[in-house]
Amino acid sequence: MATTTPPRGRRRAPSRMTRAAGRAAALQKPRVILALLLLLALTSVMLLDGYLRAEVGGDQRVRSNASASEVPDDVIDGGPILSFRNGEAQSRSVPEKTIALTFDDGPNPTWTPQILKILEQNDVPGTFFLVGSMVSRYPGIVDDLVDQGNEVGIHTFTHVDLSYQSDARIQREMAQTQLALAGAAGITTTLFRAPYSSETDAIDNYSWPVYKKLGAQGYTSVFVDTDSDDWKRPGVSKIIEWATPSKNKGASVLFHDAGGERSQTVDALGTYIKKMKAKGYTFTTISGAVQQADEDAGVLPGAPQGQGTGTAGANGATGTAGATGTGTGADAGAAGNSLQAAHRTATGATLYEGKALVAAVAVAEWTVPGLATGLAVVGVAVMARFAMMLILARRHHRRRNRRRFSWGPPVTRPVTVVVPAYNEKECIANTLRSLALSTHPIEIIVVDDGSTDGTKEIAESLGIPNVRVIRQENAGKPAALNNGVRHASHDIVVMMDGDTVFEADTVRHLVQPFADPGVGAVAGNAKVGNRNTVIGAWQHIEYVMGFNLDRRMYDLLRCMPTIPGAIGAFRREAVLAVGGMSEDTLAEDTDITIAMHREGWRVVYQEHAKAWTEAPGSLKQLWSQRYRWSYGTMQALWKHRGSLTDKGPSGRFGRVGMPLVVLFQIVTPVFAPLIDVFTVYSMIFIDFKASLLAWLAVLCVQLVCAAYAFRLDREKYRYLLMMPLQQLVYRQMMYLVLIHSCVTALTGGRLRWQKLKRTGEVGTPAGAN
Description:
Elements: H1 16-52, H2 73-76, E1 81-85, E2 88-92, E3 98-106, H3 111-121, E4 127-130, H4 132-137, H5 139-147, E5 151-154, H6 167-185, E6 187-189, E7 191-192, H7 208-216, E8 220-222, E9 226-227, H8 236-243, E10 251-256, H9 263-278, E11 282-284, H10 286-297, E12 343-345, H11 348-400, E13 415-421, H12 428-436, E14 442-449, H13 455-461, E15 467-472, H14 477-487, E16 492-496, E17 500-502, H15 506-511, E18 519-528, H16 534-557, E19 567-571, H17 572-577, H18 588-598, E20 602-613, H19 619-639, H20 648-685, H21 688-713, H22 723-746
Parallel strand pairs: 3-4, 3-10, 3-11, 4-5, 7-8, 9-10, 13-14, 13-16, 14-15, 18-20
Antiparallel strand pairs: 1-2, 1-8, 6-12, 16-19, 17-20, 18-19
Helix pairs in contact: 1-11, 1-22, 3-9, 5-6, 6-11, 8-9, 11-16, 11-20, 11-21, 16-21, 18-19, 18-20, 19-22, 20-21, 20-22
Region (Disordered): 1-22, 297-320
Transmembrane segments: 371-393, 660-686, 692-712
Pfam family, one: Glyco_tranf_2_3
């Protein structure tokens, strides 16, 4: 006998569906990466904003009453300007009848501009020790401050006590502030004032090493010898009194232009300047005071005053001042102004990194408050939804379960049940056996959609009366349903999935609303049959609370968006009138439900018609199913967007149902993860107890809603014990699925049908509890 050997080296060309699936799979990875990058960017923006506000990495410790045994006496008793020459500390005092006005903690958008205006009106310069985080938030004020002729110094980036910090943290505080200055005003500076510092006699054994290290990098540390104590808000007269030097001495005088309510400082400053001028005082900056002190001491201009370890131009990236003290040589001063001799022109990487920092902070300043506002709106919407569901679901239950409630004359005529099936060998027998027990007369049509696992043969071998099996080429679920509708013998068509089982009375309950001639379709009560696993229990809670409670609400509002594929009934004429099940979307059930609303048919929910379906048994299958559902829902809403401007029943759905679906099923879930991110952020960086209590309060509200939904459906409450874990894991996954779907929709992607793996474990309703 001759045999034919297939030629080697030749491969069969891939089909169109295979090529499309390959393209879709190739596109999914970049979309997932894009979604993760967006989440990473958002997290980075939040952390940056929190760092600027000292919520992230903040340190409120302030050292006091420490020993000063290691601090040289000539430093403790010296002047308020401390620099280092070849490692040796050198103190300078402000010359007599001279005042160096210094301002700490700014810039502030309210008080700093007012102080600048007073200084300009009185032709007086000031030295502002700026907090880097504030500089990056208000760069325009710093630019104006420098242009006006004032001098700036570093007050760290987050206003921390450096004596508690590591060397690396100290360098970051200095470098980041230098970058902020570079981005805001195009300069860096060699002046430094430590937060919580005062006079030189407050230097202790912990802060002294910090000053020495910074001095070795070219920084001049500035203290005060006259403190206005304006932060105490003692009154204008007291501020002026306390800021006045004694016995015509020169002084480095401390005021604050930020860090609290500074109206008294503003009110006192102008009067103080006039008073001091009347006494013969002159005003200068710290650099101006240094220059004047050096001239009095006979030091030549431009002579090096520091150790000289830095480089000209200021190395802001490492926090090195990059200057030789506060010298007045050719490089001193960004614009050659001796009153700004501590300034260095920022160039190269320092300048561009600084501008990038300021730009990033600007993004954070707009993004985080905007998100906070949006999340507040979302939070209100979520709570409003819970309230609506509880109120309307209760009203729906009371109305439909009244003794005298009736849809009309009982519907007893036979109906057709269409079962689309593709490779359902594990489930089809249980499905058909459950239908065989129906107490309502039915015709069963199984549409085998090109199965390759013997589904058709199993259905035919059961020998159940009134079962017809129709074979078609694989064309998808919508085509299978349409084929079943065309072959239906009766005017009412019940549609179900091939992995679903009905109770004996399900069909009878499901078709009763058709006694009302205005009803075109009925949604049944889908139940998770395989609920004894963790994933199954999570989905069971979602079905009872998220789906069925929602359907009660939508039923009363007459804008039911979806008839579940597991259990739904339709008037055959209504289905044919809207063109049957459309293949335009992946959510054919949502698509046809909206189409029937637009044609003027009423869609209702029948809670007593129960179907038990096999939910996905793994996270991968669950992701696949919900991804398709979410994306298909978006497709359906976009397809029917014209209903927003329609009149009549179509317009009613468009202006009532569609906004509710968009708000509650797309917008709110998309932004809901941000609420959780903010909650985690608050727990870690702000107030753990308050944030935890807020999260528990929301969880309690959800538990109340879920418990009420379980009560209405007469479900066992024990599954609610899984709800806290569901909120932590399952809900986050559903949010990510929806975000993934949104990214796919926004990038123009297309999905294909996916076949879920079935086990056939949902055998009979009685065994599904």
